[in-house]
Design brief:
Elements (H helix, E strand, L loop, with lengths): L2 E6 L9 H16 L4 E6 L13 H9 L8 H9 L2 E7 L7 H10 L6 E4 L2 E4 L5 E7 L16 H10 L4 E7 L9 H18 L1
Parallel strand pairs: 1-2, 1-3, 3-6, 6-7
Antiparallel strand pairs: 4-5
The structure holds flavin mononucleotide (FMN).
């Protein structure tokens, strides 16, 4: 039985969000294919995340040394470490990920839990795990000069890789805010891809 962490990062609700329309289809298909698996859904707007607290970083380090799995911040890192698979869903915002998702990454990328320091530098501790990132974007970042401006999917791919999760698939719906586009078709194409990926995930 696998544990799947479904990480949702958007101020829009399930009904409003085009990203969640795709990611929820992914999850539904995954559930049908893997009824015995555990899906843990975290809506980051409901999870009570803050920025890392000022003046408390030493306290946090001590809690890592004591392996305090109930610590209000570290519990997210342990939950992340315990998962086998990750499904992340977010829109691109201002060329990057929504700030709440960055706050979550700051909670889970913890030395001593999801990565460790060695004489050769930091090494990821999350082995044999895989991730799917479901992202929607108003624009199109498929070629230069704008390709290198995209720092949402790229950032997640890098930080997941940093924690040891290098099996990372992206499902993207692009050009959703280009007024001449058939948005319904773009969303349907991305949803079809999501269903296909979910069947084999
Ligand atoms: C605050 C904000 C910032 C955005 N920044 C970008 C951006 O930098 N690049 C882009 O292509 N689209 C940008 N968009 C458009 C969204 O990424 C796009 O409309 C997306 O499909 C919204 O997904 P949702 O329906 O799940 O909320 C932005 C939207 C918002 C609300």
């Amino acid at each position: 039985m696998s544990k799947v962490l479904y990480i949702k990062a958007n101020a829009r609700t399930d009904v409003e969000s085009r990203t969640f329309q795709i990611s929820n289809s992914f999850i539904e298909t995954y559930k049908e294919k893997n009824p015995e698996d555990e899906i843990i859904e975290i809506d980051l707007y409901e999870a009570g995340l803050q920025f890392l607290p000022k003046g408390k970083m030493n306290e946090l380090r001590e809690a890592v040394e004591q392996s305090d799995r109930n610590h209000p911040i570290l519990k997210f890192a342990y939950q992340f470490y315990d998962a086998d698979k990750y499904v992340i869903a977010e829109p691109i915002w201002n060329l990057g990920i929504p700030a709440i998702l960055k706050a979550y990454i700051d909670y889970v990328a913890v030395g001593g839990i999801t990565f460790t320091y060695t004489e050769k530098g930091p090494v990821g501790m999350c082995h044999s795990k895989k991730a799917v990132n479901i992202i929607t974007r108003g624009g199109d970042y498929s070629s230069e000069p704008v390709e290198s401006l995209e720092m949402a999917d790229k950032y997640l791919r890098n930080i997941f890789g940093f924690m040891g999760i290098t099996d990372f698939t992206t499902i993207a719906a692009d050009r959703l805010d280009v007024i001449t586009e058939d948005t319904d078709k773009l969303l349907q194409d991305a949803t079809n891809k999501a269903v296909k990926v979910a069947e084999a995930f």
